Amino acid sequence: MINYLKNNPDNVAQWFFAHLWLSVLPVVVGLVVALPIGWIASRYKWSYPPITNLAGLLYTIPSLALFIIMPSILGTKILSPVNMVVALSVYSVALLVRVVADGLNSVAPDVRAAATAMGFTGFSRFLKVDLPIAVPVITAGLRVATVSNVSLVSIGALIGVPQLGSLFTTGFGRYIPGIVLLGVILCLLLALVLDGLILLGSRMLTPWQRAVAKR
User: Fold this and answer.
1) Predicted confidence band at 116 (pLDDT cuts at 50, 70, 90)?
2) Which of 35, 36, 64, 93 to pair with 138, CA 20 to 30 A apart?
3) How far apart are CA 152 and CA 94, in angstroms?
4) Reduced to 3 states, what is the DSSP secondary structure of residue 62?
5) pLDDT attached to residue 214
6) CA 25 to CA 8: how far, in whole Å?
7) Confidence of residue 160 (pLDDT cuts 50, 70, 90)
8) How many CB atoms are closer than 10 A to CB 125?
């Protein structure tokens, strides 16, 4: 493992950063798409069951099959990373829609009434009151989606997309367990770093929780 890392530092670094952006970008896209859909599911109670059930069904699609059929849907090449970004964005939306809706539903009616009395209505109340209060719940979903993506990205190596999963295919192809172990360690390290960054971002966005915890 150490020898391979010493002899191929450029390849490993390139695969690591490819794995990083392939894991993070779909979560960002998924959150942007899930926010309005989750708001609809929260705002109109009758829409919550069909929306969340559909999102759950999307997550049951096998990842490798989705990676393979994406080029025919998008008109891209089989090795294009766009296929993985779109596919993983679908999974991120599937995970985050319910989380966003549940987070917004966690806002107490009294809080919303007080915000309305203070002049917050419509989008301004959503942006300045509902969404900040829902941050801890949404953060939990973001952590799951991000760690899940770090795992799913590695499957892309089976169709030739270079990232840390390439260490798995290389290790298995050469019957060298150390290379596979290197891939596992780097994936775990990436997942831990991203998870920590999300937690840090959540703490920065919810300073009032630290104040309450100190009481």
Assistant:
1) confident
2) 64
3) 14
4) coil
5) 58
6) 26
7) confident
8) 18
| Dihedral in degrees, nearest 10, Cα atoms 185, 191, 197, 203 | -120
**DSSP per-residue codes, 67-111:** HHHHHHHHT--TT-HHHHHHHHHHHHHHHHHHHHHHHHHTS-HHH
Query: What tokens appear for 9 in the block?
Result: 């530092």
Nearest to 80 by CA among 142, 160, 179, 169: 160
- Sorted by where each starts, the structural domains of the chain and their CATH numbers stand as 2-213 (1.10.3720.10)
pLDDT, tens only, 166-205: 999 888 888 888 899 999 999 999 999 999 999 999 888 8
In this prediction, residue 209 carries a pLDDT of 66
Angle between helices 48-59 and 9-43 (to 10 degrees): 160
Q: Are 34 and 101 in contact (CB under 8 A)?
A: no
